[in-house]
Amino acid sequence: GGADIECDVMVLGGGPGGYSAAFRAADLGQKVVIVERYSTLGGVCLNVGCIPSKALLHNAAVIDEVSHLAANGIKFGKPEVDIDLLRGYKEKVIGKLTGGLAGMAKARKVQIVRGNGRFIDPHHIEVSVTTGNGREESGEKTIVKFRNAIIAAGSRVVKLPFIPDDPRVVDSTGALELKAVPEKMLIIGGGIIGLEMGTVYSTLGARLDVVEMLDGLMQGADRDLVKVWQKWNAHRFDNIMLNTKTVAVEPKEDGVYVTFEGEQAPKEPQRYDLVLYATGRAPNGKLLGAENAGVAVTDRGFIPVDKQQRTNVPHIYAIGDIVGQPMLAHKGVHEGHVAAENCADHKAFFDARVIPGVAYTDPEVAWVGMTEDEAKKQGIKVEKSVFPWAASGRAIANGRDEGFTKLIFDPATHQVIGGGIVGPHAGDMIGEICLAIEMGCDAEDIAKTIHPHPTMGESIGMAAEVFEGSCTDLP
Ligand code: FAD
User: Fold this and answer.
1) 368 pLDDT more than 90
2) Disulfide-capable partner of 336 in 20, 106, 403, 404 (CB 3.0 to 4.6 Å)?
3) How far is CA 95 from the centre of its chain?
């Protein structure tokens, strides 16, 4: 059949994976089209994920920070929150970034085709043009013919079957809309997204309950890191329900009544003003007509790929949330670069040793590579070194010495294979440990690197020094 547009590389989805792939492919001389249903680039991350959540968390962190100054003789009044202005600030942040992306696309002559894309065969996609801010289809269709394709269609919120349609029951997107601050809020799912949003609402005045099916909050991070976060944040919570199932959510006139099951579960349904469900995200693999292109999709909607990000159809690649865990923007960006380079006939592979995880709560919790808990579970022998921030001049000066920095070493080589940090700005610091792991650094390399004093980042060098000092069997 005919095509309205022809290109070398068609990128389906304009999120962090998709735009990174598109820009790299364009930089390598490819004619690139992005198919995106929304009016802005940036996907979940920029529009309803990483960025708006951090815009709100920053404001919350400042409020929390100044409240601690009272003990030092500096008192502020209770903050007056103009929620419309705060929401406006968040929108402005998004606008700056999505505007920047549009400019970058234009500068690279990347064409954006606005609409819902659906593969019709291995070299054509049909785009049902969308209008306005949402997904309304205008009825108009555009056919794009491509030599290579990169599927970057991301993931969506999973709505559990017992979640009703009610304005007081929201997902992360609804919570980011910040309509009002409830008195009493329930977070279903004690993962990063739920706890970040809980931090914002609690600082603005909400009392929190959290319910988690597993035996701990913030799964994936070592328990000793999470413990520090939990102690610092105990004041926000009325009830932390672990090993507990949520079985019913019932909107009534005076509130939303939620029923729980489990040993720690309250017997009676509990009343909330706002319920946030943050129990996970599902990949969009089944919504793209992938079968028409011959692309294999798993039952759960993931698209399997090899180390070059190729699907089972060699000229069609997939990247980002749609290819698997961890569903993180920085993973998708790297996969996007690999796919784009392969489209331009380079030979690129995704071979990152580690992908860091960060909870941008207060304090932040960051980890990368091998964790202590995972090593224990797998029966892998590791050694560790912990530097408590109670011994860090800068952390003490900042009034924030609750945290610590931990390095995990291979006992045979003393190479660093993992690390964790809990404390303010942990997420900004974890990058050094990522680099150390990628470069195969051992404890001595890190210990002999001069870190600036006094900084919290210094704690990484100190942890390595402590480990070096304790070793008698230097390799
Ligand atoms: P997405 O960002 O999901 O983008 C996919 C795009 O494809 C969307 O724009 C969608 O409209 C479009 N699309 C899908 N199907 C079609 C179709 N058929 N036709 C046309 N267009 C289509 N990650 C981090 O690393 N750090 C964080 O701090 C962080 N915070 C988060 C906070 C929240 C509240 C949430 C929900 C997520 C957060 N994440 C964070 C995760 C991060 O947002 C995702 O990992 C990332 O956005 C995935 O990028 P992607 O390119 O794979 O897909």
Assistant:
1) yes
2) 20
3) 20
pTM (2 d.p.)? 0.97
Q: Where are the alpha helices (DSSP H) in 28-141?
A: 43-48, 50-68, 83-107
Pocket mutation for ligand 1, best pick of 48, 50, 178, 317 (most atoms within 8 Å of C-beta)? 50
Tokens of 337: 């670069």
Distance CA 319, CA 339 (A): 8
Residue 322 CA, closest ligand 1 atom number? 52
CB proximity list for 77: less than 8 A, separation 6 or greater: none
189 is in an annotated binding site: yes
In single-letter form, the type of residue at position 214 comes to: L
Rounded average pLDDT over 109-138: 93
Show the CA angle centred on residue 50, arms to residues 463 and 64, nearest 5°.
65
Q: Left (φ > 0), alpha (ψ -120 to 50) or beta: where does 440 sit?
A: left
User: What residues does ligand 1 touch, defined as CB less than 6 Å away?
Assistant: 12-18, 35-38, 43-45, 49-50, 53, 116-117, 152-155, 172, 193, 284, 287-288, 320-322, 327-330, 332, 360
C-beta separation of 247 from 260 below 8 A: yes
ipTM over 0.85: yes
Give the number of the atom of ligand 1 that is nearest the alpha carbon of residue 327. Answer: 45
